[in-house]
Amino acid sequence: MRKSRGASIEFSMIWESEYAVHNERRFITRVNFWRDLFPGRMGEAAEALLPGERCRESFAAGRLVLPFTTDGIVRFKEKCFESQQGYHSLLPRIGRFYPQGIAWTAFGCFRGNMNPFRIIGIENDTVIADTNHPLALYPVTLEATCVERRAAFEERGGMCHDISETVTSDGPGMQVPYPGIKTNFYSVYPFRRQNENEDVFFYGVPRFVNHLDETASNLIGGIYSKALVSGSKVLDLMSSWVSHLPDELEQCEVVGLGMNEEELAANKKLYGYVVHDLNESPLLPFTDDEFDAVICTASVEYLVRPLEVFKEIGRVVRQGGLCIITFSDRWFPGKQILPWSGLHGFERLGLVLDYFHKSCLFENLHTETVRGYLRSSDDRQRDKTAFSDPVFAVWGSVKEKEAL
């Protein structure tokens, strides 16, 4: 019986749009070098890697995904768009993505078809949709980092990974606007929520719960560790009893701003804190250029006036300082802004990226996503899903103040 070699590998797909530099990280626990399909010469190079080593290869647009074709642009009558989805009404918005099953009669598919299309125009009663992969126009660089080598094992069949499909599937590319088109995120602004009761009552009760699993929390800590400098003064925006900052940043002077004083007082990372409701007043109670960086973890989805808050972030962070926003796919039901739960995870990434752009205060923008890592063995949710919560991040630096 044939013996195969394997490894645990993190693949990073790096690409650039006119809006930001993007990095889509996808971890595969068991890569099989005999069975799995690799693009280009990636398989040979990855098989030779030792733990900690990496290799990379660049690919032209249309190599990792199908190339863009005009046949992918489809026109159909708006009546084919099934707006009523169960108890929810879904309106077609320009720039947004939807599963093809919503317009199954137009695409000739089943109602359950989840392949995405993007609305790029609505003319009279006709919808113009693009079914091309959102990465079809972008060249990419694929990087493989060996995390662990696996001993040779007897080949007994099993799942085959198509590496190109794995790293490009389910979202990458959705976070940038369609060329020449602004995505309609703001049909109602300030944003509304299902639970419009005052936040002071909802957050008045302390909730000492973890919003992210341990693996996701550590991955976010890794993003902060790479971006922040020890000794910096950091504002932890919309903070609670956990700040997700790694121990190597313990020399940072961290100030928390949140809604519950008991939670903030229990946060061992905080040097000080302020109780403040950003939905009541988006003005930050700090002086100009007071901080080296702002972080916001798993909370941006609650802001009803994020554009005003991002203007304030640009004011209180010094020139060249950072703003880093991270989030996942869990939130307090009813308190998230209404567009949020109806967006694909990568569209949420695009919405937050748009906050940065609309403020006109930031440059050197980056997005990063991390998927595929496993939950810890003692995680109580592991019996429901072995995979860790996905991580989404957007960050940028404050522009030269004199130029603002």
Key descriptive features of the protein:
Chitinase A, domain 3, Thrombin, subunit H, eleven-stranded mixed β-sheet, PPIase_dom_sf, alpha/beta, SAM-dependent methyltransferase, S-adenosylmethionine-dependent methyltransferase activity, 9 helices
What form results from the Cα inertia axes? globular
User: How many helices in DSSP terms?
Assistant: 9
Question: What name does CATH use for the topology of the largest domain?
Answer: Rossmann fold
Structural class: alpha/beta
Q: Count the beta strands.
A: 17
Beta content comes to 25-35%
Radius of gyration: 22 Å
**In which order are the strands of the major sheet placed?**
3-10-1-2-16-17-15-14-11-12-13
Largest sheet: 11 strands, mixed
Mean pLDDT over the full residue set: 94
Helix content: 10-25%
Q: What is the chains' assembly state?
A: single chain
Taken together, the total number of domains comes to 3
CATH architecture of the largest domain: 3-Layer(aba) Sandwich
Question: H/E order of the elements?
Answer: EEHEEEEEHEEEHHHEEHEEHEHHEE
Termini separation comes to 67 Å
So, the CATH homologous superfamily of the largest domain?
Vaccinia Virus protein VP39
Q: CATH top level of the largest domain?
A: Alpha Beta
Uncertain ranges: none
